[in-house]
UniProtKB/TrEMBL annotation, chains A, B:
One of its GO terms (molecular function) is coproporphyrinogen oxidase activity. GO terms for cellular component: cytoplasm. This is coproporphyrinogen oxidase. Signal peptide: none annotated. The keyword Oxidoreductase applies. Homodimer. Pfam families: Coprogen_oxidas (PF01218).
Length: 339, 339
């Protein structure tokens, strides 16, 4: 709780910029770009930023967990590109946490491009013939943390750079938090951290990206969001992907040792069922990944790394009115402003 | 095992037709068709057949379970139609079993029609304008049984009648079995029951519908089927939906009391994870249902009744070579002929 308050007061005091964490020494990271990509091109620069972010984030999550460590699995694909899969299983705090770096390029079918961005083929600025494929490059870091304790929220973030051979490119990404129980202070901290980071660019950035996340992380067939939001963007270059640890780690620290009942664990697993529904039915990254697999690009275990270790579906479960479960359901059904 | 053998020998003896079970007395079933539908129309006749089948199947599954009973939840929708939801939870044999009857009609968007049938809008025999909606009627019985014991397979069936206001109509359906461990005799029995029933119509029916199921129940992103097949059809009128109990109940009886380890239970839950992946990403009925919900037609809890109570995803799990888990994986990856 101390860290949360320290952080909030730092924001409230109007301090311009969070102190940068000490840079970690990168493991011997070998670029997965094409040999022909020049050293200073955006592809390689973005790759270097996320490779360092992956190290930083894994290090801080391992410190928080205090038990298990992340595996380090570099892989490459016969079709070019590859990634570094880092997964932590069965820790003290985390049931399953993953931070995956991937570099993919090749030719994508138009329905994959449509899955990759809201603007779909228009994004290319060119008219594609039916069936014409789109040469592309994509590089990203994505992460999901599923803690054991139902009082500890799940957190996801994704940060990616996308380029087509037609000369268009964009950054996209987002982060959101998925608690099973509502703690308003935690939500103020999480959203506050991003508001504070984005306000530097302009007062309309946070509200715009926050509203975008409320729309993006919505499960239409449930009429509810999968969690309590965050930010989502398809056009933005933040050079600060490590902000995720500022936003999330203090919440983890605060809640990881709270006691919980079996019934609360079951509720958490039901919310994980919603997480599975969102990811398999609507999530752009997952659907893009599954479509690309059919063309030989990508790695299934990394695409589905976001799924929780366990999930639960109970027929016609309705939280009791007035319960803690009903309280957060209201926030899932009616997105709120937290800051 | 006795029932399995009796059934197989009946087939082998060339007995023409299974004896009909005694008709059960229907609960006071009220038709959910439109008042304007004439008494002898196909809509009402089909509805009567599946209403009786629902009773029969629930009765036999309750007998097999010997513990819990099915709820009986009639529901209707403000937009017309409705259904009877019947779900059994936490029984002796079954973790979750459901048999759902539904009657839906209204106007569907073209992407819902595409989800409803392989032939999509061509099925209507008319050219639809972009955005033009398709008035339709659909009526079906669908069921999934998820047993507790990992040696007891999951079973699914679906049987439906579909009509558009352009004068086209068709029957569709299918059934498949999803074991976590391979028992070749059980597969011979299950597939044999359907072969025996279909051979009556012609020698090419079973092989055609069996191959169709192997294609339909395939999970492209895994390169494997969700189970060990069954039959799938989009054009067929079997008047014998109760065949499912002949095919399944003896397998349940044979395996429900086998001992199992915690590790075997975890494997079952991982296979249930595949079940969730198939249903949310590819299953035509589920996708059609979720799309129709957006138009106010259908009932979410009935559409997602097929999901297991619990499912599990383990990062990069690979069965040990030579293990029982590896044995059935081979059958998931390489569909076999069982009879």
């Amino acid at each position: 709780a101390a860290a949360v308050l320290a952080n909030r007061s730092r924001r409230q005091s109007g301090e311009a910029k969070r102190p940068q964490p000490a840079r970690v020494s990168l493991q011997a990271y070998t670029s997965l770009c094409k040999d022909s990509d020049p050293p200073e091109c955006m592809r390689r620069r973005f790759e270097a930023v996320i490779a360092e972010a992956q190290e930083q984030i894994c290090k801080q999550i391992e410190e928080l967990d205090g038990g298990a460590t992340f595996c380090y699995e570099p892989y490459d694909r016969p079709t070019g590109g590859g990634g570094i899969a880092r997964v932590l299983k069965n820790g003290n705090v985390f049931e399953k946490a993953g931070v995956n770096l991937s570099v993919v390029y090749g030719e994508m079918p138009q329905d994959a491009l449509k899955a990759a961005t809201e603007r779909g083929v228009q994004r290319g600025g060119v008219d594609l013939k039916p069936g014409e494929k789109v040469p592309f490059f994509a590089c990203g870091l994505s992460s999901v943390m599923h803690p054991k304790n139902p009082h500890c929220p799940t957190m996801h973030f994704n940060y990616r750079y996308f380029e087509t051979d037609f000369g268009t490119w964009w950054f996209g990404g987002g982060t959101d938090i998925t608690p099973s129980y509502l703690d308003v202070d935690d939500m103020k901290h999480f959203h506050g951290t991003y508001k504070w980071a984005l306000d530097e660019f302009g007062p309309d950035w946070y509200p715009k990206f926050k509203a975008w996340a409320d729309t993006y992380f919505y499960i239409p067939h449930r009429g509810e969001t999968r969690g309590l939001g965050g930010i989502f963007f398809d056009d933005f270059n933040s050079e600060d992907p490590e902000a995720v640890t500022d936003a999330y780690v203090p919440i983890g620290k605060k809640n990881q040792d709270l006691e919980y009942t079996e019934q609360q664990k079951e509720w958490q697993l039901m919310r994980r069922g919603r997480y599975v529904e969102f990811n398999l039915v609507y999530d752009r990254g997952t659907i893009f990944g599954l479509k690309m697999l059919a063309t030989g690009v990508g790695r299934l275990e990394s695409i589905l790394m976001s799924l929780p270790e366990t999930a639960r579906w109970e027929y016609c479960f309705e939280p009791e009115p007035g319960s803690k479960e009903a309280e957060i359901m209201d926030a899932f059904k009616n997105p709120r402003e937290w800051v």
